[in-house]
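User: For my dataset I need records formatted as: sequence, then structure tokens, nothing else. Please produce one.
Assistant:
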Amino acid sequence: MSDRLSAISDFILQLDALKSVERRTYINGGERLENSAEHSWHLAITCWAFAELLQDDYNVPTLIKLALIHDIGEIDAGDTFLYSPNRNTAHILERESVERIAAHPGNPIGNIVDLWEEQEIGVSKEAKLLKVIDRLLPFLHNMTSEGQAWKDNGIHKAQVLNMHQFIEKESPEIYSWFIKQLEYAVEQGWLKA
């Protein structure tokens, strides 16, 4: 048992590295930048809340696992900003990181790679909801920080629309709310038209 506890302890500390991955999203109205571990926790609980709200027979344990695992690849690869030109290739380094972590001798979770692939490909309704919420959270943070990350990075309305367009198909109600908030952000000068 002692060897097993030592091995899982080392595995857990490997996962703890996600706390050191800084994102470009501000929390608490601009207080500071969040890290990827905070984002993953926030995503998991928000997905759970939306699953309850939408009452669409979501597999909540799977949804939470997908949320908790979705940024694990950033431990080695780092966070890729939503509007980065490297966005389309980030998954390659992230997948390598996930595979390295999954192969750790102290890992008792047998399906880490499969879960990560599911959230990455997004074919289940749980993965689709996760992707909507994953885009919604940084947007909400930008709204509470008066567009701080948008301003820091010179982001325009068209960029935000482009990266959130898929929500219209997945959840028209959420997309309608998003558009109203987006227009408000432009009116306030938080986001360039």
